[in-house]
Design goal:
The complex is a heterodimer of chains A (273) and B (320). Chain A is an alpha/beta fold and 273 residues long. Chain A contains 10 helices and 10 strands. Chain A has a 6-stranded mixed beta sheet, sandwiched between helices. Chain A has a 4-stranded antiparallel beta sheet with strand order 2-1-4-5, with helices on one face. Chain B is mainly alpha-helical and 320 residues long. In chain B, helix 3 runs antiparallel to helix 8. The chains are: A alpha/beta (273), B mainly alpha (320). At the A-B interface, helix 2, helix 3 and helix 6 of A face helix 7, helix 8 and helix 11 of B.
Chain lengths: 273, 320
Amino acid sequence: MPAPLPSIKIEPPAPANQPPADHPELITFENLSLFYGAAQALKNISFGIRERLVTAFIGPSGCGKSTLLRCLNRMNDLIDSVRITGTVRIGGEDIYAKDVDVIELRKHVGMVFQRSNPFPKSIYDNIAYALRLQGIKRRSELDDIVEKSLRSAALWDEVKDRLYASALGLSGGQQQRLCIARAIAIQPEILLMDEPASALDPIATARIEDLILDLKQQFTIVIVTHNMQQAARISDHTAFFYLGELIEYDTTTRIFTNPARKQTEDYVTGRFG
Amino acid sequence: MSTPRLTQAGARFRTGHFEPVSFFCTGLTGAATLLILAMLALILVNIAWHGAGGLSPRFMFGSADRDMFDVNKAGVGPMILGTAARVILMTIFVIPVGVTTAIYLTEYAQAGALTTRVIRAAVNNLAGVPSIVFGLFGLGFFISAIGGTLDNLLYAGNPQPVWGKPALIWASMTLAVMTLPVVIVATEESLRAIPVGLREASLALGATKLQTVLRIVLPQALPGILTGGILAVSRAAGEVAPILFTGAAYYMASLPRSLTDQFMDLAYHVFVLSTQSPDIEKSRPILYGTVVVLLLLTFALNLVAILIRARVRRSLRQLG
């Protein structure tokens, strides 16, 4: 069994022109390229994501933003034809190194998917699932974490009277918040969100966005979104991708008000994409 | 001619045209369905008509008589027991092996890899092998090879073979090999129907592949696995050829007491009654009665599996 991933180390302070030092760089992509068979989906990506900020990946369909997100918890490992070159570091550790335990990595890097995918179990068991896998068996401890997670996901008040009812009976927005509760129950440091609100109505979307703003106090959040306004509302940094390349990466304010590249400006103003 | 616009005079939805092709196709498919229903009805009515009269508690549950062609002495109790035993044992053997294979094929094997394709082709070919070949395979492999080896190792000085002879366990195993493709295919289909999102959700939470399969995938696939079991039971209950050389007995004075005993069997008994009887007219009521009992037993075994499946489905829908 490979050694577990060490806990995240704090990196030296950021250079002067970068955001404040209490948001040190946590994730680093170095010349990352990814191939599906012969097709190249990511081309030489290099940039860094800072701790306890919301970083949005934007770009038209097929630009590789979801693929890049899935590099961070190595979900791409599930696809046989995927080949990766370059390095992805989390807290300085190369997560594609040979001795990395993927299972352990995924406990540090939680994920919420585009389509809410609660297990066909009770609300309680959805959250307790990963805890039980980690060997937490004591009922009182499980109860505590389930309640805490549901409260963090702003779902507790709606479901506290039916914790043992099927999760499939919840509305779409509630299901997605349950998936967020499930992901944060195991206390990851990083939370990946792959278009978490794209299947939801505006009210449910607003609740998810509020939740994301709350959660960034504790977690480093990386979110893929199709929705430009959403990126502008909730993210601190934005990375714009096009055809597998990182076109521009800056603070969200800069990307949306004064982008350096013409392509970025065209995309965020809705001229293409 | 252009279609009149709705606002124009003469626009009509109902033209009243007779569509000969559509009419013909409806008639043809309907007739084919009716034909099948009619054949099934014919078989069942015929058997029930001739067989119902012969059914008495003594016939159904009484012991077999050496003179099995005598209407007043015949009983099929031991055959019911034998058939039920071999079908239930077969299910116990085939489900674990079939389900494990299906899990390997869908969850672990690389989809396009050569080994996967070879395994899948082997499973499909296994489904196409005639049942008498399975009978011969059972005789050669289970009885001679495995049974013979066991006897050599465990009962070296024994003049009578203990394992190396036709027996309930070998007949059940032969049937299990025969029904393996049914279980594998049904299980594979039910595994494939489970959304990838559920597996991803589990893996993203730091579950191992094995934990994901055991705790998330398999419980969802249970109804499909049981469907495979039901199909296997239906297929195996009426088979004679695979048990011909591997366990079925023409006549036994006593019931089988262990897995290494031979057994009397309903389906094989139908074969015996229709080929060995000195007076086929006289023994016909017994023949029909035995067929009715065989059908009832098959339905009963299926019903048990269907009830279990309904229960599992209900509990999955409620909670899971």
